[in-house]
Amino acid sequence: MQENIDENMNVAEKLDDEVKFGLGLKFGFVALIAILVSAPLGQLLTSFLSNFINLGDNVVYFRNIVDVIILIIVLQILLNKLIVSKVKKLIKVMDRIEQGQLDLSELDVKAKDEMGVLTRKTNSMVNQLQEDVKVMMTEVKDSVSDLSAYSEELSASAEEGNATIENTNQLIENISGNIQQISASSQEVNSFAQESASQTEAGGEKIDTTLATMNQISNSVNKAVEVIKGLESNSQEIGKIVDLITDIAEQTNLLALNAAIEAARAGEAGQGFAVVADEIRDLAEQTNQATADISGLITNTQSQADKGLEVVEKVESEVDAGQNVVKEAGEMFYSLKENNTQTAQQIKQTAEAAQKLAHDSDEVNRSAHDIESVSNDIATSSQELAEMAQDLRAVVDKFEV
């Protein structure tokens, strides 16, 4: 199409030179004819008017005026006949072309002069313009249809994108709310974990104190066992001494009995010795009774010592078991403390991650708003594009081919 336009422009420039030259000749020819015709007609008209009007010395002046008027009239008639009427037809054609009315029939061309050439070239230009405009209208209509379809698709995509972004914004807001709750819960749990760690540490210290007390009790019990065992050993030694005293008392009683027998044999000479023997026998019996009582006390003491030793050994066993339990509880407390420390650290990391996630969610939310703004701009642009397509279609529809 552009090649046709360039070709028409070249032809028009060439034709412009030809028409200018031809019109120059025609104007000269018309002027010559007008001059030749105006002189005799002016003389004839002046002679005719002099019969009715006394011109006197103004005859020459009046004749010149008449010649000029006749020259103008003749020029007007000749120009209108040869040029102006044809130019008016061309102007009407140009006016209709200007209004987009290209459904023109060809101008009738009979003249062989430059106006005929101009008319034929005008017909050729109009025909070529009709073909070019038809092609252009077809291409523009196709482009407008494609543009309208693309605009509708773009608008639909923008609306769908806005709906998706709105859902995304709602989802991000929900996620942000949940993250805030997680962060608050993490802080609360972290505070609880720190308090639990503090209480666990205090419990561990109390267990250490209890374990130390249990160790002291164990040492005291061990000392009590040693004392009871020493008491039992001393009781056994006392028993041996009592047995020895009992044997001595029995021997003394036996000697006193023998002495009494010998005193009885001696008669009156042995009465004093008999009294002494009786007293010795009484002392021996008292000694036997005392040693028997002591032996009973020792036996009872040994029995009580055995029971006390049994109780103390049982206490010692229970203390050992208690120490084991306390040690296990201490290990559990220390393990719990370590777990609480790790849990607090993990909760802290979780809270920091939640805060970072909240920050990232805010960034995503801002990006979503930016995308939404771009989508709105796209929707506005697509609307403007659709309006431009309609305007272009309206412009094309103005052409009548």
Overview of the molecule:
This protein has 401 residues and is mostly helical. The chain has two domains: 2-160, no CATH class; 193-376, Methyl-accepting chemotaxis protein (Helix Hairpins, Orthogonal Bundle), CATH 1.10.287.950. The chain contains four helices and no strands. The two termini are 16 Å apart. The relative contact order is 0.09. The mean pLDDT is 69.
Outline of this structure?
This protein has 401 residues and is mainly alpha-helical. Helix content is 92%, strand content 0%. It has two domains: 2-160, no CATH class; 193-376, Helix Hairpins, CATH 1.10.287.
* Strand segment tally: 0
Question: How many discrete structural domains?
Answer: 2
Based on Cα principal axes, name the global outline.
Answer: rod-shaped
Total number of helices: 4
Structural class: mainly alpha
Portion in helices: over 70%
CATH superfamily of the largest domain: Methyl-accepting chemotaxis protein
- The CATH topology of the largest domain turns out to be Helix Hairpins
> Strand count, sense and closure of the main sheet?
none
| Average of per-residue pLDDT values | 69
- How much beta, percentage-wise? under 5%
Low-confidence stretches: none
Q: Class of the largest domain in CATH?
A: Mainly Alpha
Annotated CATH architecture of the largest domain: Orthogonal Bundle
Integer-rounded radius of gyration = 74 Å
From the N-terminal CA to the C-terminal CA, the straight-line distance is 16 Å
Secondary-structure element pattern, one letter each: HHHH
